[in-house]
Design brief:
The protein is α/β, with parallel strands linked by helices. It has one domain (9-108, 120-180): Vaccinia Virus protein VP39 (Rossmann fold), CATH 3.40.50. Helix content is 32%, strand content 25%. It has a 7-stranded mixed beta sheet with strand order 3-2-1-4-5-7-6, with helices on both faces. The radius of gyration is 15 Å and the shape is globular. It binds S-adenosylmethionine (SAM). S-adenosylmethionine binds at residues 31, 33-37, 54-57, 60, 83-85, 101, 103, 105-106, 112, 114, 118, 141.
Length: 189
């Protein structure tokens, strides 16, 4: 038996992405934060692949750089100090996956949060870059101020995606307290 993956949105999103991404792929971490997903993606794509990671906070860039260095995995990763809504300016190849982790930086400034308009712009751009059979995961944390509005806006957007082009899944941990994050997974057909 492998490790449990139904414990939370983070583990489940990693499980889903690991079924799709392989060595040599190009992928995006849309919300770098402390770098956990960046490191996870770098391990999947290997030194022959490429991870583009975005964040608007210097703290996130520094924390992620430090985490990658500790693991000796800082090659093949581009840490971009900029908004994910501008990903098309940096990423010029198709991607196998993109991971979004919405909300604020854990142990960071809780006032700096992802916002509905730029999040949806970024999802639209990631969908354009996505290869057939590629996956986008979106973990929606919404317990903070402004979080509910973002959750509603993102759900409205993904519910409207054409089913002939995309399969869209919503996973809710329905017996957990305190606004457990909702996980969205989008597969391009
Ligand atoms: C929930 S945290 C991400 C956690 C991260 N995945 C990890 O493993 O630690 C959300 C991050 O999104 C970042 N963020 C907010 N607006 C952004 C934007 N427009 N583009 C990219 N990142 C953004 C925040 O600065 C914050 O670090």
């Amino acid at each position: 038996m492998g490790s449990k993956f139904l414990t939370n949105a983070t583990n489940l999103s990693k499980h889903i992405v690991s079924q799709v991404v392989k060595a040599g792929d190009c992928v995006i971490d849309a919300t770098m934060g402390n770098g956990n997903d960046t490191l996870f993606l770098r391990k999947l794509v290997g030194s022959s692949g490429k991870v583009f990671a975005f964040d608007i906070q210097t703290t996130a860039i520094n924390n992620t750089k430090a985490l990658l260095m500790v693991h000796g995995l800082h090659d093949s990763v581009e840490l971009i100090h900029g908004g994910h809504e501008d990903m098309d300016l940096y990423v010029h190849e198709n991607i196998a996956a993109a991971m979004f982790n919405l909300g604020f930086l854990p142990k960071g400034d809780h006032q700096i949060i992802t916002n509905p308009q730029t999040t949806i712009q970024a999802i639209e751009k990631a969908l354009l870059l996505l290869l057939p059979n590629g996956i986008i995961t979106i973990s929606i944390y919404y317990g903070h101020e402004g979080g509910l509005a973002e959750k509603d806006a993102v759900l409205r957007f993904v519910e409207g995606l054409n089913q002939r082009e995309f399969s869209v899944l919503k996973l809710d941990f329905i017996n957990q307290k305190n606004c457990p994050p909702v996980l969205i997974a989008i597969e391009k057909r």
